[in-house]
């Protein structure tokens, strides 16, 4: 809680000794109200000083009158200074002031001489207290004035006698002064309270930025609310949580004349929809607990399980800004809680696969490294599992069914994994398991059981889907390097796939020294382009405005002489681990440019674009820019028709990315950021690179209809890109509901199985003709 200053204008004044407080009489304190009190105190003292010579002159020769005037002067001087130093004026002190003013009048031959003291005291004292004290003060000073007028003839002879009309005029002016001074006091106090509330909210906002634990956020918010109420007396705050048809009463702040009940009727909150749209209903039970009628308002709280609200009650005399500070605090807390929840989800996504909930590759690698460092025997085994024919599932049934199959595969495999083992989905249809405290035979037996668990077909949306798996098993020898262990497991699983479907292969050194299946596969891949085995398919990109095709993405395929048509997941990772990716990338780029140069116009005067993926190795190649420009020149394709797709990781891995992309963009070639939102620096990439297209990752598009976080990511990305003048393309669109949602959000275009899968160029042109005709 923010500490209250010694000279705070709040009710919770930190009292200090008179000795320590006395120097403040010389220096003007901070705070508008306190500074005004200091100024008025000095004006009152000067008024007393200027009035004294006249009394002395009138009472010349009258020792009793002089003593009475001296006593009244000392009393008023001490009373006014004491009130300022203590920052409070007890009622007894005001009565003493009234007697001193009356004594001053009796000591003077002219009661009119005390009028400056009377008004000085009214102005000064009204800056303290509350409205009822101002009313009592008016009665007291009116009585004082009338008493002086009635009693003064009985005490001594006056040069100027009392006048009823004159006294009535003074009383009316004094009452008006009380009203004006009271209004000034209230305005100055409200001003100081507003400053202190702003300071409290600002400091709390800074502290909230450093908090991530929801409980710490709630504790800070509640303590700040207490501090706000100490600054603004009269407010009441109650937390309520929906519990069935009733409202469970939580902690409260402020004075309640009777104890709050444990529950309130549900009718107190009028909430027929979301909690954020709730309004106050029957506030009778709340007013009964307060013992008066207050103006109540409610603010929804970010709770994990139940609808919850903070009820704020304020007297009618308090301004709206005072209650707004509490509601503003709750909005800050709610935002911090939502950010905390988002951060926790992002942390979970950073460690776990979003689809299956298993460990992801980075988390798996860290844990495997830890296990290797702690392992002192051959009791640690690594299993790599790769699904057989999974690409056929995606091609035949779509990625949505494929994702469901992967989820079910993970559930089945979990039954064979012990709690202490590490189970991860590395990528696509690849899984990995780390077994601790096992023998070679036990590890192989677990691998066979995992394969057997996938023998039964899966049923997804009424579709029967069958997949198998190949498993590579390797034992970690003491001191083995992490990369070597992973490489051995990779070699083993590739050997298992070559041996036939549904096989388990235990790694042996002979797999490395002989021309293993992996070596053979890699050699075949390096010759694929020269042998004419690489082909390019095209997946259309459709405008969400009118569903016209605006371009296509180039997708490489390998027509393997033995294994048939292979998709990028089967060979691109291997190509990227060697220089084969350079040959493959150059082939796809030249072929895509040559094909796109023959395509018809998307609309009159608007050519179709072709999008080509770029890898980190290609971007690092010093001849990459020349290769792109030469492909455009040879094909005759306009640079504006070529879009180069690259992922955020490609940019981060390539130190030369910025300069080369700037050069390409200067020639009119457009740059697309692929899989946007899956990395940690996507916004940095947007700011630093010449990006003109953002491609929303298919995982967010698939989850936008059911996951609020995915929905927010997609919506915010679309809105942000629109404001930046960047085109948005949603990947993996498979249902009309997804298309409708993306169109409502304002996305520019989409691609996915809802429109068409990747097609050979001849079939793509036929599809274009059919779409144009329809």
Description:
The chain is of the alpha/beta class and 774 residues long. It has four domains: 18-193, no CATH class; 211-331, Beta-Lactamase (2-Layer Sandwich), CATH 3.30.450; 352-514, Alpha-Beta Plaits; 525-773, TIM Barrel, CATH 3.20.20.450. It has 28 helices and 26 strands. The strands form six sheets. The protein has an eight-stranded mixed barrel, surrounded by six helices. A hairpin with a 6-residue loop joins strand 6 (295-301) and strand 7. Helix 3 packs antiparallel against helix 4 and helix 19 (580-596) runs parallel beside helix 21. The longest helix is centred in the N-terminal third of the chain and has 46 residues, at 164-209. The chain is elongated. It starts with 17 loop residues before the first helix and ends with a helix. Mean pLDDT is 80; it is low at 1-15. Pfam families: EAL, GGDEF.
């Amino acid at each position: 809680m923010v500490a209250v200053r010694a000279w705070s204008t709040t009710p919770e004044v930190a009292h200090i000794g008179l000795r320590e407080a006395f120097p403040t009489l010389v220096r003007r304190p901070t705070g508008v109200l306190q500074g005004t009190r200091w100024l008025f105190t000095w004006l009152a003292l000067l008024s007393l000083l200027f009035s004294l010579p006249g009394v002395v002159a009138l009472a010349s020769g009258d020792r009793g009158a002089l003593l009475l005037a001296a006593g009244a002067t000392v009393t008023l001087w001490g009373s006014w200074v004491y009130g300022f130093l203590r920052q409070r004026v007890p009622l007894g002190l005001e009565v003493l002031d009234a007697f001193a003013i009356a004594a001053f009048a009796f000591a003077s031959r002219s009661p009119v001489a005390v009028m400056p003291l009377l008004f000085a005291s009214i102005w000064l004292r009204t800056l303290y207290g509350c409205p009822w004290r101002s009313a009592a003060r008016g009665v007291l000073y009116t009585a004082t004035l009338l008493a002086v007028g009635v009693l003064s003839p009985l005490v001594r002879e006056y040069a100027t006698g009392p006048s009823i009309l004159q006294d009535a005029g003074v009383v009316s002016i004094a009452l008006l002064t009380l009203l004006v001074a009271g209004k000034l006091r209230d305005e100055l106090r409200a001003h100081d309270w507003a400053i202190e509330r702003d300071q409290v909210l600002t400091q709390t906002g800074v502290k909230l930025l450093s908090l991530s634990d929801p409980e710490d956020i709630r504790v800070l918010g509640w303590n700040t609310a207490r501090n706000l109420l100490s600054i603004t007396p009269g407010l009441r705050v109650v937390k309520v949580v929906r519990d069935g048809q009733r409202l469970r009463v939580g902690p409260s702040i402020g004075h309640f004349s009777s104890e709050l009940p444990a529950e309130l009727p549900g009718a107190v909150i009028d909430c027929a929809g979301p909690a954020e749209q709730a309004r106050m209903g029957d506030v009778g039970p709340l007013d009964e607990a307060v013992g008066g009628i207050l103006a109540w308002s409610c603010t929804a709280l970010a709770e994990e399980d139940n609808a919850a609200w903070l009820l704020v009650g304020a007297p009618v005399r308090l301004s709206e800004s005072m209650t707004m500070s509490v509601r503003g605090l709750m909005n800050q807390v709610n935002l911090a809680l939502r950010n905390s929840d988002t951060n926790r989800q992002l942390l979970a996504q950073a460690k776990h696969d979003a689809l299956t909930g298993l460990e992801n590759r980075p988390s798996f690698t860290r844990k495997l490294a830890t296990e290797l460092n702690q392992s002192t025997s051959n009791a640690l085994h690594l299993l790599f599992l790769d699904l057989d024919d999974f690409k056929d599932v995606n091609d035949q049934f779509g990625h949505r069914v494929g994702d469901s199959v992967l989820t079910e595969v993970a559930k089945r495999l979990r039954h064979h994994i012990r709690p202490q083992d590490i189970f991860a989905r590395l990528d696509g249809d690849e899984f990995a398991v780390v077994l601790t405290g096992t023998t070679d035979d036990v590890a192989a037996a677990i691998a066979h059981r995992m394969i057997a668990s996938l023998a039964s077909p899966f049923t997804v949306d009424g579709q029967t889907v069958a997949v198998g798996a190949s498993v590579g098993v390797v034992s970690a020898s003491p001191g083995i390097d992490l990369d070597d262990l992973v490489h051995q497991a990779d070699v083993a699983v590739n050997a298992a796939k070559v041996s036939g479907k549904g096989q388990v292969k235990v790694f042996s050194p002979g797999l490395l020294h002989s021309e293993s299946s992996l070596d053979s596969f890699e050699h075949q891949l390096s010759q694929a382009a020269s042998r004419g085995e690489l082909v390019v398919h095209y997946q259309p990109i459709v405008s969400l405005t009118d569903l016209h095709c605006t371009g296509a993405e180039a997708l490489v395929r390998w027509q393997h002489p033995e294994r048939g048509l292979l998709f990028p997941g089967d060979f691109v990772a291997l190509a990227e681990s060697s220089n084969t990716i350079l040959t493959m990338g150059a082939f796809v780029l030249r072929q895509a440019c040559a094909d796109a140069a023959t395509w018809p116009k998307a609309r009159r005067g608007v050519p179709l674009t072709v999008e080509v993926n770029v890898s980190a190795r290609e971007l690092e190649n010093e001849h990459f820019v020349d290769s792109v420009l030469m492909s455009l020149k040879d094909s005759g394709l306009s640079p504006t028709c070529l879009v180069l797709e690259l992922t955020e990781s490609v940019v981060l891995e390539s130190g030369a990315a910025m300069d080369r992309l700037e050069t390409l963009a200067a020639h009119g070639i457009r740059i697309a950021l692929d899989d946007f939102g899956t990395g940690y620096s996507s916004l940095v990439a947007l700011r630093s690179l010449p990006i003109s297209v953002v491609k929303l990752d298919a995982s967010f598009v698939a989850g936008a209809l059911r996951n609020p976080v995915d929905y927010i990511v997609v919506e915010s990305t679309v809105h942000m890109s629109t404001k930046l003048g960047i085109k948005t393309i949603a990947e993996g669109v498979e249902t009309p509901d997804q298309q409708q949602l993306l169109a409502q959000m304002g996305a520019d275009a989409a691609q996915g199985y809802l429109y068409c899968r990747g097609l050979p160029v001849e079939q793509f042109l036929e599809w274009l003709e059919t779409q144009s005709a329809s």
